[in-house]
Amino acid sequence: MSNQSSPRPIIDHIVILVSYDSLFETPKRLENALTVIHGGEHADGLTVNKLVILPDGTYLEFIAFNKGIDPDRRRSHRWGSLEEGRIIDWAYTLPDESDFSQVQQRVREGGAGVTYRDPVAGGRVRPDQTVLKWAVASAKDAAGNPVWPGDAPFWCLDRTPRHLRVPYQEGSELLEHTKHASNAQGVSKVEVRVSEKDFSTLKPVYEAIHKVGQAAETTEDGWSFDVHSGATKGSHRLSLSVLGNKDAKSEIRLTFLGTDQSPKTIELLPGLIVDFESI
Questions:
Q1: pTM of the complete model
Q2: Is the CB of residue 177 less than 8 Å from the CB of residue 37?
Q3: Is the dihedral of CA 170, 17, 64, 93 positive or negative?
Q4: Distance between CA atoms of 253 and 86, rounded to whole angstroms?
């Protein structure tokens, strides 16, 4: 492997699964906290989404399965059998898809049997007929089975300019939909909580993903990520810990960067709380 350091991972988006009816109530429900915009329907016709785009270029994706779809088709989807009303997954990205081969190699060499599949093409056409293209790559365990969504990040790698997929600024000016009543500025922390057994499997994966040069950038509170805007305010930390609730499979918690005008928390959905920190 080359001694050249690969880029630090960039947090791309957080996925929240909701019911179809709840999805269309989201803009009104969150109007006093977050600005929610229309996303679109994905090319497979299974899912539709709405987005909260933050000033740092990160976004929340509220996603729902369309009504009336075949139950078997839904179950075959990566998120089709997951519980609604919670954060179910999250994605990293990189400056260029060509950087991903280094991540694959590091995880293959140090990831305790976990590996990342090659990127699979995806895309959609915006209402204005702009074509968006990307590729996604997810993790599999030593037996070749998919790693549980959210336990390890999937990768969303743009093949058309990212600003077409995630419009958050024009030139140096932030777009109006990135302004939020809660003064949310971006994603500051992501906490992934897993079982004790899964923790021992996943920690080497995270160390490999975040390796800088010849050393893993591990500290007691986890690893650093970048944001697309290049902003440096905020903790920008990813942590992995053991879940206290032994009945749960895993849990993902989110902390926003805010201002001194931000609330301490907001409730995205009943029982789904996001914390704020102000730096």
A1: 0.93
A2: yes
A3: positive
A4: 10
- Token digits for 260? 């001194």
Tokens for 235?
A: 């903790």
> In Å, how far from its chain's centre is CA 81?
18
Q: Which two tokens stand for residue 273?
A: 């709380």
Angle (CA) 261-262-263 rounded to 5° is: 125
- Conformation bin of residue 256: beta by default, left when phi > 0, alpha when psi is -120 to 50: beta
Relative to beta strand 250-258, strand 186-194 is antiparallel
Structure token pair of residue 30: 């969150």
Delimit the domains of the chain by residue range. Answer: 10-278
Task: Tell me the residue ranges of DSSP E strands in the chain.
Answer: 10-17, 37-41, 47-53, 59-65, 86-93, 115-116, 120-125, 131-137, 139-140, 154-158, 169-170, 173-174, 186-194, 211-212, 215-216, 223-224, 237-242, 250-258, 265-269, 272-278
Residue type, 178: T
Superfamily of chain region 10-278? 2,3-Dihydroxybiphenyl 1,2-Dioxygenase, domain 1 (3.10.180.10)
C-alpha distance from residue 228 to each of 69, 89, 231, 232 (Å)? 35, 19, 8, 11
pLDDT along the chain (279 residues), means of 10: 67 97 94 92 84 97 94 93 96 96 94 93 81 94 95 97 93 94 97 93 95 61 93 95 82 96 96 93
- How high is the pLDDT of residue 1? 36
pLDDT (0 to 100) of residue 218: 56
Q: For 199-232, write each residue's pLDDT tens digit.
A: 999 999 999 999 876 555 556 679 999 999 999 9
Note the pLDDT of residue 220. 66
